[in-house]
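thought: user wants a sequence for this fold. calling inverse folding tool.
action: design(structure=
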């Protein structure tokens, strides 16, 4: 593909995948049908977009409550800065941890710098998983709190549109919404 066709193809591809993959056995083939190309061109297009960094993450939005996970605990940790990477890897290795990331402290009010999300069927299940992490990762002397959500907001991935392409931060003919 030449650069102009490549850009138009990738723009259309991003618009389609930002709405979610089709729930069919071969989602990339279904997208290829929409774009009048081959399944391998769709896969290669996604890989190019990701390698350039224009698409940083490609994942699933899970509606935990619909799957029976009613307790959502964000565990905030006060990890010594020199150990954040090590501890983050330890916490993130467990399948029940859906997110684990570092954020800057906001002193003096907020001293936590590592955040991990755990979903469970009830609070007791989440608390047991936190206790397991504390034991397995050697965090007995580390200050942490589990913050349970009280409300569930609509979950969705980022959306993109050409209509916003001329706005601030627009890049390659597409702009993020939300």
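)
observation: tool returned 178 residues.
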């Amino acid at each position: 593909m030449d650069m102009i066709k490549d850009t138009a193809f990738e723009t259309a591809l991003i618009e389609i995948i930002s709405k979610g993959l089709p729930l069919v056995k071969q989602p990339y083939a279904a997208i290829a049908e929409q774009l009048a190309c081959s399944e391998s061109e769709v896969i290669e297009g996604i890989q190019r977009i990701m390698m350039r960094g224009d698409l940083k993450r490609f994942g699933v939005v899970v509606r935990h409550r619909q799957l029976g996970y009613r307790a959502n605990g964000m565990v905030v940790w006060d990890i010594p800065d020199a150990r954040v990477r090590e501890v983050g890897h330890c916490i993130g290795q467990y399948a029940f941890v859906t997110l684990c990331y570092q954020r800057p402290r906001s002193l003096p009010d907020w001293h936590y710098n590592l955040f991990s999300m755990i979903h469970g069927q009830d609070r007791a299940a989440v608390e047991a998983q936190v206790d397991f992490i504390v034991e397995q990762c050697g965090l007995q002397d580390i200050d942490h709190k589990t913050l349970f959500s009280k409300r569930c907001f609509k979950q969705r991935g980022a959306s993109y549109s050409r209509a916003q392409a001329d706005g601030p931060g627009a890049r390659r003919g597409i702009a993020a919404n939300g």
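thought: summarizing for user.
answer: Here is the designed sequence. The helical segments are 3-17, 27-35, 39-52, 84-92, 123-136.
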